[in-house]
């Protein structure tokens, strides 16, 4: 039952929907060119304008694919439904991976719709409108059918203002995290190529660039433990099957735990002792490095914490056991630096599903400073990583508040009070 004063209307009756221009080689070669937005530039509630691409738009296309203040851009694929509100003050356009929503009338405000789209995505409301034939995508026809629960305009504005104020706190915390990530990457680039400041006077050319003369350059296989199965992928060469899973036993260590570079298990599943005994080559112990092997995040890695004494590796992951030549935390920073600089990307197969080649990974060349210097470098990088973790913990609170507020304000479970001036 619809709340008093609220109405339900499909997106297509509230907004003009326009899919962006198809990207093609001719458009990138012709002049004049103009900046445009694609899927990668659209983040939840904001745009990444740091590295805009350009292509040619004819006069008719500039009219058709222009952006105005107050337009919404919605991702058709990738993270389906991801939405941001354009407030830019410069000429810009958009490509086919995005839908532009422009209000048709005064029934819905763009600010309210921005928050509704996040709520619809988080609550699963968009799932029924998403094609899953190959890669998930939200067609124009399906997006037009999504029903929006609309309060009166004054309430829309008040709800949007409340949720936007929480977004401001989230954005401030995220900005600190982003800056610390930049600092960490800069520190890795300096410390893992030139060593500690002022320590080295002589440098040498190597296969991977100029490094301090005292450092060695070794393949990963020499930095891993010199024991059988020090670098392995998961059992059966593929993911464990659901039939193997139990509610308790030996935890299955999956690639999704490490895709952020931190250990973040979403939910453990388990196997019994008998299966573990048959697959001991894939045993994972505390402080082993676990790497995502397959997919867009292939190469992401983190160390298994000591909360479990042992685990078993899923087939979408790789385990690296550090050896005496490299401290475990130092080796982790080396692997994360290799990912950040694109060296791990060179180890990916060219198949449809990117995957790290285990053989090539073992041959990956890495620097090996003397152990005392490794420990100091790792400590400095760990300090920055600890600050990032603290800020991430601070961010968790506003994110929970935002989720709770969306669930009650955008459904009318809690009504906001609107003063007479705002309602006029």
How confident overall, as mean pLDDT?
90
Task: Compute the CA-based radius of gyration.
Answer: 25 Å
How are the strands of the largest sheet arranged? Answer: 2-10-7-8
In total, how many domains does the architecture comprise? 2
> Which structural category fits the helices and strands?
alpha+beta
Q: So, the CATH homologous superfamily of the largest domain?
A: DNA methylase specificity domains
How far is the N terminus from the C terminus?
Answer: 26 Å
Percent helix: 25-40%
> What is the number of helical segments per DSSP (H or I, 4+ residues)?
12
**Uncertain parts:** none
Overall outline? globular
| Assigned CATH architecture of the largest domain | Alpha-Beta Complex
**Sheet of most strands:** 4 strands, antiparallel
CATH topology descriptor of the largest domain: Adenine-n6-DNA-methyltransferase TaqI, Chain A, domain 2
Beta content comes to: 15-25%
So what's the CATH class of the largest domain?
Alpha Beta
| Structure summary, number of beta strands | 23
What is this structure, in a nutshell?
By secondary structure, the protein is of the alpha+beta class. The protein is 35% helix and 19% strand. The protein has two domains: 144 residues, DNA methylase specificity domains (Adenine-n6-DNA-methyltransferase TaqI, Chain A, domain 2), CATH 3.90.220; 153 residues, Alpha-Beta Complex (Adenine-n6-DNA-methyltransferase TaqI, Chain A, domain 2), CATH 3.90.220.20.
Give an overview in words.
With 424 residues, the protein is of the alpha+beta class. 35% of the residues lie in helices and 19% in strands. The chain has helices at residues 11-14, 25-29, 59-64, 110-122, 140-145, 153-194, 220-223, 273-278, 328-340, 358-362, 371-409, 420-423; strands at 7-10, 15-19, 33-37, 42-43, 46-47, 53-56, 72-75, 83-85, 93-94, 98-103, 147-150, 203-206, 209-212, 216-219, 231-233, 250-253, 270-271, 283-284, 289-292, 301-303, 311-313, 317-320, 365-368. The strands form eight sheets. The chain has a four-stranded antiparallel β-sheet with strand order 2-10-7-8. The longest helix is centred in the middle third of the chain and has 42 residues, at 153-194. It is globular, with a radius of gyration of 25 Å. The model has no long low-confidence stretch (mean pLDDT 90).
